[in-house]
Specification:
4-stranded antiparallel beta sheet; 2 helices; 25 strands; about 5% helix
């Protein structure tokens, strides 16, 4: 029953706050003198760096973080083809002031990634090398704000159209750091280790579940070592499982939860046996777990409203409501050919690929998709006919269309699941890296909703009191709602008067429009 009492019900929903990424750059410089036990520097194979964010904290509108850069130089001496390795570590403390846009977010989230921009090595003498380069730090900032929408209205002869919407009403975030300590044991069939040339860690979360309000996370750390042995170069891979309990208030067992694992630091400690050979490497991995759990709500939210008596002014807004985290796994196969002119390649020791400069953007061809683009830095450690080691390197750009769109374009970390290779010619190596994007994604679904209603109680719509029924010739695909709204009557009255079962006309037909207030 319609009355002159006016009641509006509102609901607060989470919407993502869009904040542009921030980029900082750290110059890297090192003047290094080779230790006495290292042979003289004669031929450079590669000069690379990897960067890790080991700590981060927020204080008074400023993000403070610690950047650790590990420099790796592979070279050969003049009298030997053995690959020598130099590894040095540099630490930097940096900060970033919050941008103004971040003030709209209730609990800002920061995701930091660091990667080398470039790295150069110059031999000052046979015992001294000069390293110069830079590391780029990308800071992804995201968060949510609360937006009030209209969930119901009564009185003043209004008619309401609603849409049942499922959305996130509460988000729980937490993180936990822990150290995973394991040992590499080199099998008796493999030669002993002389020096580590390269290490790589791949982290994956295999299971997440909430039990009695506690988040249980299980995963694996796959660690691969490329090491120099007495008669060449060897590869060693081990997979170490981990299991952690993450404390977070407010969790319930039915909540969907997304967890990411990232490497904060790595420490490798070779240990010699009684005969002096190294067959055991102790590995300490500092791992950061970041979890995001969500509580979902389903409610009828208003999408349109009108009064059959009074003029109405509506304020609508396209609101990207957040949906519960959903698992996504996508793969893409690439082929990259690396060439070493004027050399006959006879052996490949190892090959790997690392993504760099990865960015995501909305797919212009798919309203619900994302385009992921970047560069794949491909490396091959090989040998020629004279058993001289050499490094082949090449950057391969990629563009990847994904069938989903995440909130704030925050996607799982892109990894290279495998990197097969083959000698495709005397001067060529063909790599087949497989890109993997796997994890939980909190997507955003756009809805056009009412955010404000203004009704002029003092003014009445012009009416024609002389008719009880009006004739109207309806067209296919017209909705009863729009017809009733046009003639300031009730949609249910139009449906009943014309004995219709659908809300949308299936064919052109004559309709009787009752004068109902």
């Amino acid at each position: 029953m319609q009355t002159n009492e006016w009641l509006v019900r509102r609901e607060a929903v989470y919407v993502p706050v869009q904040i542009p990424d921030a980029v900082q750059e750290q110059s890297v410089e090192l003047d290094y003198v080779l230790p006495d036990y290292c042979p003289d520097f004669f031929r450079l194979l590669s000069c690379t760096a990897d960067a890790l964010i080991t700590e981060q904290e927020v204080s008074e509108g400023t993000l403070n973080y610690t950047l650790k850069v590990r420099l790796h130089v592979l070279y050969c001496g003049e009298q030997s083809c053995a690959v020598q390795a130099v590894t040095q570590q540099l630490t930097y403390h940096k900060q970033l002031s919050f941008p103004a846009e971040l003030s709209a977010a209730e609990e800002p989230v920061f995701r930091l990634t660091a990667e080398p921009s470039y790295m150069n090595c110059r031999a000052v003498s046979h015992r001294r090398i000069d390293l110069r380069g830079a590391v780029r730090i990308r800071i992804q900032m995201s968060g949510e704000s609360r937006c009030e929408v209209i969930s119901g209205a009564e009185g003043l002869h209004v008619r309401c159209r609603t849409d049942n919407v499922q959305y996130i009403s509460q988000i729980f975030r937490t993180q936990k750091r822990f150290v995973l300590s394991e040992d590499f044991q080199i099998a008796p069939s493999q030669p002993a280790l002389l020096s580590v040339l390269r290490d790589h860690v791949s982290l994956s979360v295999t299971e997440t579940r909430i039990v009695a309000g506690k988040l249980i996370v299980k995963g694996e750390a796959a660690v691969t070592l490329l090491y120099a042995a007495e008669n060449g170069i060897e590869t060693l891979t081990s997979v170490f499982p981990f299991s952690q309990i993450v404390e977070q208030n407010g969790l319930s067992d039915e909540m969907p939860c997304a967890v990411t694992a990232s490497l904060n630091d790595i420490l490798l400690t070779p240990e010699s046996e009684n005969d002096g050979n190294i067959r055991l490497i102790h590995c300490d991995l500092q791992i950061l777990l970041q979890s995001e759990a969500a509580r979902s709500t389903e409610a009828a939210l208003l999408t349109d409203l009108y009064s059959t008596v009074h003029p109405v002014t509506l304020q609508t807004q396209d609101i990207p409501l957040l949906s519960a985290p959903a698992e996504h796994t996508e793969t893409m196969q690439m082929k990259v050919t690396l060439t070493q002119p004027e050399n006959v390649l006879t052996k490949v020791y190892a090959a790997w690929a690392e993504p760099a400069g990865v960015q995501s953007a909305p797919d212009p061809d798919n309203a619900e998709g994302t385009v992921l683009s970047g560069t794949l830095h491909c490396s091959v450690l090989a040998a020629d006919a004279e058993n001289r080691p050499m490094m082949l390197e090449q950057d391969a750009p990629f563009s990847w269309q994904l069938p989903f769109r995440s909130a704030g374009q925050s996607l799982p970390h892109l990894t290279v699941r495998s990197c097969g290779y083959m000698l495709s010619g005397p001067e060529q190596v063909m790599l087949q890296p497989e890109l993997l994007l796997s994890g939980s994604v909190m997507q955003q679904v756009p809805h056009r909703l009412l955010t404000d209603i203004r009704i002029d109680r003092e003014e009445r719509l012009p009416v024609d009191e002389d008719y009880a029924l009006r004739l109207y010739f309806g067209q296919p695909s017209e909705s009863l709602w729009e017809i009733a709204k046009r003639y300031h009557t009730a949609p249910e009255a139009v449906r009943e008067e014309n004995a219709l079962t659908d809300d949308v006309l299936q064919s052109a037909q004559m309709l009787l429009i009752p004068n109902v207030k």
